[in-house]
Description:
about 75% helix, mainly alpha
Amino acid sequence: MGENHIRYLINVSLFSVPCSLFPVPCSLINMIKKRILICTFLALSSGFFSGLIGGQITVMLHSQRCQNQSWGFKQMCNALVTPGASLQGSAAGMWTGTILGAFVGGLISRESSY
Length: 114
């Protein structure tokens, strides 16, 4: 790690007005902060919505096992299956959505190389 890299890390993360401390252009710092915000927002929002959708899909798939039961047993089976399926689907959806959202956010906010 060079001295400039350390200055850059300190500049971006520690100080609210870093332009007066080290010779790094303020436009570069503002661009990086904006990119981090875009990626974070897209990752968290897509993770949240993917978790909701994944939980619902997994509950529907797991509750199909209960369709051949009589009415009372079907209700009990659904009550037993729903919590585990919801947790499993939500966790898988959150992980997948967060990773894909961060990837898309990085693609959207990157500078063109032209």
